[in-house]
Structure to design on (535 residues):
């Protein structure tokens, strides 16, 4: 059992390594993708600097918390797209019958699919988050929590993408649902949760789980709360388990395809 | 001993129907219609260990659907199936260690990697120790004559070179059963001959069971001992090549005979 898990993890690591090697085929494009993604993210700092000059606090957040929010969102998004980029285009594989290559291998179909692509620009997102965290609110304990919440955030985003992508097993042209859900989550995760009330707040915590992926982790990093910490970890495990269950339920309905294709 | 046992295997696909034009699209949103297509209809057969079987039929006959159910890609709607005593629907991963697949129209290799790196990756997928993988790469490299291009990225190889690499990758773990779905499609006659002799050699040396689907009569004639013809989801003929060749000498070519059988859609044909 332990050997099987070790072998599976080794294959996942190799897969990610080969993905990054593919992204590095053109060194210039690879480096510029990363650098420009970091610059693109940094541009938003200006907007918040101006806003905080006008008001000392927005939705209970100061500049430090906002930077933590941005850093965690960027790093979580980055990590999810470095390791599991294919989860975000799962619908395409299902609709075009491209899961065959993964189904004939003696490894977990889901992990093989998820780790079969990486996005070079996401390395920029991941690094940007780390840099922002270190520049604006560094402490050893906070860095540890930041890295841990980057993992939980990445898993929540990936699980959400998997749940939305798996809809394609049942419904034709459902891919837009997935795209919208993930994009909505990213958009809302860059604003302080204190500005949302009532239904909006409910939606952000229970339907599009920005609260669990970003808001609560930021609260825990600012002022440690064990209960909140455990809820975030528990929710991540729950959502991932739900995503795995739905994917494998859907896989029984997979109808393959006869398109000519190459593994790019 | 039986390598494959299939009994009353069935698979139905639900296909959405749409009337033509914009009105048709609007109507299909309000009243979606779908049609059930029985791709495989209560198919039964067995394949002995070490046998080379041609599983053929016209386009849409249900060949690929059957092969995909046997390899664990698709779930059947009904019937029973076992490959090497394993049910692919229940123990897919366990079965995958013991079978190999080559789909002529679908590449399994990573195109940006060299064949060597691909083989190393496949070695890790099948949990083969590194030393053993190296030895196996050397062995397969010699068998398939990959030496000249084993370190060239796959995307830079010709189709023939690529197919030889696909074969080598599918054999890295010494599978007991090899499923070949149109393995010689698009290849020139010389490469086709090479691939055929390699399949034959592998079957003789390693006693590998070969389950082949192909539209190329040359593949069937030169490789197979037995032929199953499937049409409209049902088996319409199951006979030995020897018997067919006897008829062949009586005037009708194998290709013409197959065409005649294809035309007799849905009926059991005896020759």
């Amino acid at each position: 059992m332990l050997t099987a898990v070790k072998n599976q993890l080794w294959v996942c690591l190799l897969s990610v390594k080969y993905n990054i090697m593919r992204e590095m085929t053109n060194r210039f494009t690879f480096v510029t993708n990363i650098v420009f993604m970091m610059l693109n993210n940094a541009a938003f700092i200006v907007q918040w600097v101006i806003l905080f000059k006008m008001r000392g606090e927005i939705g209970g957040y100061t500049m430090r918390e906002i930077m933590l929010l941005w850093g965690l969102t960027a790093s979580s998004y980055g990590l999810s797209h470095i390791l599991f980029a294919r989860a975000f285009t799962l619908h395409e594989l299902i609709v075009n019958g491209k899961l065959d290559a993964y189904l004939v291998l003696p490894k977990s179909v889901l992990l093989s699919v998820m780790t079969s692509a990486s996005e070079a620009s996401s390395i920029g997102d991941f690094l940007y988050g780390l840099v922002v965290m270190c520049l604006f609110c560094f402490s050893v304990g906070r860095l540890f929590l930041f890295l841990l919440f980057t993992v939980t955030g990445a898993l929540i985003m990936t699980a959400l993408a998997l749940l939305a992508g798996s809809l394609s097993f049942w419904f034709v042209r459902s891919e837009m649902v997935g795209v919208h859900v993930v994009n909505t989550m990213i958009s809302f995760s860059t604003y302080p949760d204190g500005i949302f009330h009532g239904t909006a707040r409910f939606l952000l915590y229970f339907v599009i789980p920005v609260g669990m992926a970003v808001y609560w982790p930021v609260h825990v990093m600012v002022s440690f709360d064990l209960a909140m910490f455990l809820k975030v970890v528990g929710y991540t495990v729950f959502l991932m388990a739900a995503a795995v269950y739905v994917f494998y339920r859907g896989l029984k309905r997979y109808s393959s395809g006869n398109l000519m294709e190459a593994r790019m | 001993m039986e390598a494959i046992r299939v009994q009353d295997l069935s698979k139905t696909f639900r296909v959405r129907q749409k009337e033509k034009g914009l009105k048709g699209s609007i109507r299909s949103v309000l009243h979606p219609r779908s049609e059930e297509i029985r791709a495989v209809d209560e198919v039964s057969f067995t394949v002995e260990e070490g046998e080379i079987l041609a599983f053929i039929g016209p386009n849409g006959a249900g060949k690929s659907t059957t092969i995909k159910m046997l390899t664990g890609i698709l779930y059947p709607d009904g019937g029973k199936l076992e490959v090497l005593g394993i049910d692919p629907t229940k123990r897919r991963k366990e079965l995958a260690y013991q079978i190999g697949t080559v789909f002529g129209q679908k590449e399994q290799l990573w195109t940006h990697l060299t064949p060597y790196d691909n083989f190393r990756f496949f070695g890790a997928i099948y949990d083969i120790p590194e030393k053993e993988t190296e030895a196996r790469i050397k062995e397969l490299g010699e068998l398939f004559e990959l030496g000249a291009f084993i370190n060239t990225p796959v995307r830079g190889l010709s189709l023939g070179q690529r197919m030889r690499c696909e074969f080598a990758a599918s054999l890295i773990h010494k599978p007991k059963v090899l499923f070949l779905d149109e393995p010689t499609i698009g290849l020139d006659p010389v490469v086709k001959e090479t691939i055929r002799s390699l399949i034959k050699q592998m079957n003789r040396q390693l006693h590998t069971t070969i389950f082949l689907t192909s539209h190329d009569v040359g593949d069937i004639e030169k490789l197979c001992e037995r032929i199953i013809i499937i049409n409209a989801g049902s088996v319409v003929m199951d006979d030995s090549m020897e018997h067919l060749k006897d008829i062949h000498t009586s005037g009708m070519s194998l290709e013409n005979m197959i065409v005649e059988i294809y035309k007799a859609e849905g009926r059991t044909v005896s020759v």
Q: What stands out?
A: The domain at 2-11+41-263 of chain B is CATH 3.40.50.300 (Rossmann fold). Residues 267-271 of chain B have pLDDT under 50 and may be disordered.
